[in-house]
Amino acid sequence: METTPQALARILIVEDEPKLAALVGDYLRSSGYESSWVADGREAVPAVKASQPDLVLLDLMLPGRDGLDICRELRSFSDVPIIMLTARVEEIDRLLGLELGADDYICKPFSPREVVARVKAILRRARASGEQSSSIALRIDEATHSAMFHGTPLDLTPVEFRLLKTLAANPGRVFSRDHLLDNLYLDHRVVTDRTVDSHIKNLRRKLEQAAPGQDPIRSIYGVGYKLEIE
Prior knowledge:
Residues 10-123 form the Response regulatory domain. By secondary structure, the chain is an alpha/beta fold.
């Protein structure tokens, strides 16, 4: 029988339609997940900080606060997987949601079974990324704000630490400069996208000092950067 390590995963549902939230919650619980629910956008960030969910189902249009704004703030301090729920099917909204750091989106109306399937897929991907990012080559400890590369501690600035953590959360994924900028500065200051290049250069130098000949950061011309850990 297949084991289900995700069975105790905690899912936070941020949705202002009570019947829909209850239906999705029922399907999640029947699939072995724990679920909680908030209906007001202003309650979303405090709920994430308080309950530390393994995944957030985040509606785009909420009373009190917009889902995209919530997603942006969550990404300033957390890598929790986020699936956007939206009835607005315009392409710009989809792209904007993903650019802000959402992992996936589901358009309304949807089947609760589809939601469960997407949740399972995202959690499976998150576990695989976590295992890879905590490999012997690169270890990141968010609790102590420290990182090691091939056994050597890295002397990183707060911005460099957030940059490395963002790249390591999804090894192999290409991040645009704009996306990286959204995760670098908690005060959302206005800087140019070339600021990322400068931080990448400094981060590469410190990785090279820790493990000569090793450069896990790949530049994708005209797109951005990705992390490849062997």
